[in-house]
Design a protein that fits this description.
Layout (H helix, E strand, L loop, with lengths): L9 H4 L3 H26 L5 H12 L6 H12 L15 H13 L1 H8 L3 H8 L3 H8 L12 H12 L1 H4 L13 H6 L9 H11 L1 H4 L2 H7 L9 H13 L4 H13 L2 H8 L5 H16 L9 H9 L4 H6 L8 H12 L1 H9 L4 H17 L2 H11 L4 H22 L3 H10 L3 E4 L6 H22 L10 H26 L2 E6 L2 E6 H7 L1
Antiparallel strand pairs: 1-2, 2-3
Helix pairs in contact: 2-23, 2-24, 3-17, 3-21, 4-16, 4-18, 5-6, 5-15, 9-14, 21-22, 21-25, 24-25, 25-29, 27-28
Length: 514
Amino acid sequence: MTNLFVRVPDNLVSSSSAYDGMQSTKRIRMLERLEPLIWKLITADGRSEARLWLCNAVGSINTICRRGQSTLFLDILRSPNPPKDEEGRSGQMLARQLLRILCEKAPEKAGKIISKRSQILQSFFKGHTRRILQWFDHFAGIGESEHKRGAKSISQFAFVNRDICWDELEWKGRHGQSPAMVATKPHYFMDLDVLKTVENFIENVPEFWSSEQFTKIVQDGEIISLDLEFFVDELLEMMYRYDSSEVWQAVQEFLLEENFCSLCQRLLILLSDMELLTFLNAVGKILASRNKHNGFDSRDKVEMKTSQFSWLETVMSTGMECQSLDELLLINACINQGHQILRLLRDEEHEEERTNLERIMLEMKQSSKDSEHWALRRECIHMKKWMAMKFLAIENWVLHYHLSSECKTVASCESLFTLNGIQFDRYSNELSSIEKSLRSSHGSKKSKKRRKEKSGKKKRRKLSSNDYSSASGDEDMGKEYANILIRSELEEKWILSTDNNASIWSMVRVSNML
């Protein structure tokens, strides 16, 4: 049974430094043999999946203050020499993606900016029949309360400015409608030739595109849904070509409001390795000053008190900078994605890696001593911090590997707890009414069968279709009952107590979390 190294044995506390050095060297050599195998597994199809795991781990940090998260992303957006996107257009890929998210989640922020750019709005509709009809062809019919979208702005502007634009309205009938007639019967606007009217307004009524009636309709940002990429391109050009303070202010406000996890998941994957490493080290600097509560509002402080720190957050909060992104990818995979590495290990294409890894694991199990682990932990104090983290992370995955194969039954899990001095109690988890019914039904069928056998009556009879159905039903019931027992064992829970803290653990979590 695997030793989790929860407590240091008394006979190891006073070991000599020379003995420790010999033991730790032996352990490090074993871990160094495992390192390239694990790295090959997690990068077999490229590094994208390992990068995604790391980005998700960064997103799980929920104690970054609002101003801090805004600064982190703004620093990248304002960095010199921005990369080109896949289509070769100038601009940052990160900025483009961020503007997409802003337009999707806070369209009113973009809408207020766009509503002041009449030339952009005119060019958006000029020559685009589909866009014109999607936005302006929403006049109310008989029984409907009011016009919608662009139709509302045309009707309002046309009445207020009828002296300069009423003649630009194109009607489908033989003759036009007068303002007085349409005012009493608004549904007459249904006879308006929307396409020709808007084209006339583009050519002959420039006042409409900057009018209060039109800009007010555009400000809510609904117009962006007609062609998201068009408006993202325009906003991006305003950011980098014209350095628009309005756009930068909207971006900054959005970064202050948006969830850090969501930003990380959708933005960090676009960064280059160097940019991502720079970002992570910047996160470390912010976390290092966290205890002083600098830049935290009351909401941030509440989140700090209620959050659970991840390994990445704990290590990075020391302020130590990492020099290699590959090291971070490996460490995070070993600590947070142990089950994914096991999944990769089982793939047929990794048969060679699986064979080599199993051979090393068997060698470690047969020749290694627990004292080597404790010697390694002592040696880590004298190593470079990220180097120490790498060896401890691989050591962590070795434990995960052994636990995944050993902790498959309730008895094996409880033996593991006992061996490692972990106090536990069974967690009461009552069966559902369906499970109780199935158990009761299955039990009653078995007792009836026993009584029938004891009666000694051996009457020969032909099996009817009902008998076959009954036999099949008993078999299905037996399978369902067996599945319940298996599921019940997998869902077995304990209350575990370590370091004066108690928590509820299921059997599925044991290998993943211990």
